[in-house]
Task: structure prediction
Amino acid sequence: MEVEELLGKTVLVGITDYDPAGNPVSQTQFFGRVEKVNGEGFWVRKQDGSDFWLPPDLSSTQPAPPGVYRLRSTGEVIENPDFLSVWNRTRE
Result:
């Protein structure tokens, strides 16, 4: 898959932050439409109108199985997104 294939598609994003010991400290979930792609990554236009940048590493982004997804934090529901993008970050 090439990053250009994401343009105009809907992506559901999940980001989990871990402390240096490997303990989860926060989780963020959102969805939106991919509005811009280039060699630096891709930009997702979130439901609130803000943009969120993700790096061009597509190993964290896969086609989404069809279905209904509910965001844990807000209860928002998205049906049949095109892609899932799951990220794990370690914070110092």
Remarks:
- The CA atoms of residues 64 and 83 lie 4 Å apart.
- The mean pLDDT is 93.
- The beta strands are 10-18, 24-38, 41-46, 51-54, 61-63, 68-70, 77-79, 83-90.
- The chain is about 0% helix and 55% strand.
